[in-house]
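thought: fold this chain, then report.
action: predict
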Amino acid sequence: NQDQRWGWVISEDMRGWVSLEYLTVDGDVSELPIKTEFGQLISSNTESALQSPTLKPTITPSKVPTRTLTPTTQTVYPTSTASMTPKPTKTPTTIPSPTLTSTTRPTREPTLTATSTPKRVTIPSPTPTPESITLEGSGDSLVNLDKSFDAAVAHIIGNSTGRHFSVESQDSNNAFIALLVNTTDPYDGVVPIDLDDRDNTAWFEITAYGSWSIEVIPLMTYAEESTLIVPGSISGSGDDIVYLSGSIPDLAIISGNQEADRFVIRSYGSSVDLLVNTTDPYKGTVLLDSDTYVLEIKAKGSWTIEITSP
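observation:
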């Protein structure tokens, strides 16, 4: 169709229409060997037949038929008039108050709490007072002393024939500690042993003619028989031990040794002090340490000691 510039093209592979706007063809269009592939025109005989190597076909859309709308008549029905019915008035209802009924409150059972069994406490029995130890013999002897207490006194009796009589204390190695008795007269007296913490008598060495006896007594046991309550005074005869109690000691007023023999007095506290040492009759006053707790007297005949407090 040369007037409208479009035409049908029939080829070996496809059939369709194509725009001829850009084609210039000499001769009969029907004899033109044209082949189309997906809208692209290709000439197979001669290059002069096509002015443009690639032509995009112009596709003319088909006319869409017009739909004619016919108006319809809508019938409107009258709305019914609703009648308003008044709502009924609510009458308040009286709600009765609840009746309170007293109920018995359940009794709570007591809870038993397990308690631990108290431990049995064993009260130790008071330590019994050690018993005295008595040693007896005759002539020269070396006897063992096995005691369970420290500070003590020894009541020694011997030398009834008036010969030489001596008693010496020794430690476990037989080393000398003290000369307790040394006389040529019959003897009956009390002497201290182991008042010093460093001493521990284990043996007695006795030189004697005839029989002898030694009774070892704990210091506190003997104190029950020979105690001076400060302030106060005490009298005695021969060798003895005096235990001090009561107030703090201050001065010792001493008299004795009327026979003009040896007269010795020592005090024991934190230290050992020699208060009196004479062979003459003695009457005097000496100062005591405040911690003095024992007095040792070596004498022949009677003596008196008075102690004052500050």
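thought: worth noting. Confidence is low (pLDDT under 50) at residues 1-5, 17-62, 68-83.
final: tokens above.
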